[in-house]
Amino acid sequence: MTTNDYGLQAGNVKIGTKQTIKTVEQGDAAEVFVAQDADPRTVARVIQLCEQLGVKLTYVDTMRNLGKACGIEVGAAMAAIIRE
Length: 84
What we know:
Blueprint: E1 13-15, H1 17-25, E2 29-35, H2 40-53, E3 56-60, H3 63-69, E4 78-82
Parallel strand pairs: 2-3
Antiparallel strand pairs: 1-4, 2-4
Helix pairs in contact: 1-2
């Protein structure tokens, strides 16, 4: 598998708000990426969860770049790397 600039690899990433929050809540997230241009109301919950649970939080400049890093054609507000 190839790794991109953010360390995301296909197969070990959950993309999108619902999937990311679920992954964090279940304790399966090693790191969460949040797009800085995402709606603050959308990302507030996952940011709070990451701070509470000690999950590393990394900000990406745009949703478009995060989506591209995840290998999808559309923007993504957030994504989580799954613990191995």
